[in-house]
Model the fold of this input.
Amino acid sequence: MPRSPVPSRRQALAAAAALASPALPRAARAQAGWPDRPIRVIVPFGAGTSTDIMTRLVTPRMSQELGQPIVVENRPGAGGVVGSEAVAKSAPDGYNLCMGSIASHSVNVSLMPRLPYDVLRDFTPVSLVTNAPNLLVVGNHVPARNLQEFLAWARTQRGGASYASAGNGTSSHLAGELLKQRTGVPLEHVPYRSGAQALTDIISGQVAMTVYQVTAVLPFVRDGKMRALATTSARRLEWTPEVPTVEEQGVRPFDVAAWHGLFAPANLPAPVLDRLFRALTVALNDPELRPKLNEQGLEPVGLPPAEFRPWLEADIAKWREVVRAGNIRPD
Done:
């Protein structure tokens, strides 16, 4: 993971002297002194969600690096829209940030035509912070041991094989829809109000398949209550290195994982952006943090701002096409 160069003591003192010069514009001096008060990170989802847990794991180390408290505030509503909009309309001074997700900053762009913000216009993408990879799992009533066997079996089912999700427009729904579009195999979507309910019906044989976060399904896989047929990411997972990817099993391209990203309002000054990303990088490289993230089924990423924006543009475009082709509507 790239690190920004650390200046020498002489360089730091010279920079500090220059910044203290009365000739320097007030805005530049303010940027140089950032942060000089607490920073707020809005999580646009409820307490206990993966976005919330991850944010509360990462921000304490960032706070140490920046020398100011970071206050995490949950502001849920409308699939992440309420909290995200609050940050989009904040001043671009680095004191109001948003920990967004695949829902709030990618999928919603296509699901909600009247979204009150434009992700690419109204935000400064700081970094792709973590990925939340998934496994494709089936119940034991499904006579398939790999993805191709499942697809062949699904073709024989009247009306297609059923697949569960945690709701319309969720990453589990979109992953199933993408598989359907890539293969032409008939798959019938069954939305649930929660992932837990979906997993219960997979185990009981009410539904055939789901795509869900690795740490949520892994205990059931290890207990023999369901089988993992594929990893939906582009590479195998450290939790389940024995499970091949969807692409390895002949369905390409296919790379699906939920994700979390840090955003600031548009026009964030470059010095503030650089320092913010540097603090995040330090946090993600902390050897004590990685196992805590892994326990939550999260992979630390730390994509730099210059790479995060084009990555985000491509992600939005990918899901726009899936939503359009599948005629997907929010609940």
About this structure: The domain at 133-249 is CATH 3.40.190.10 (D-Maltodextrin-Binding Protein; domain 2). The longest strand covers residues 123-139. The beta strands are 39-43, 70-74, 96-101, 123-139, 161-165, 187-191, 209-213, 226-231, 257-265, 299-300. The chain is about 45% helix and 20% strand.
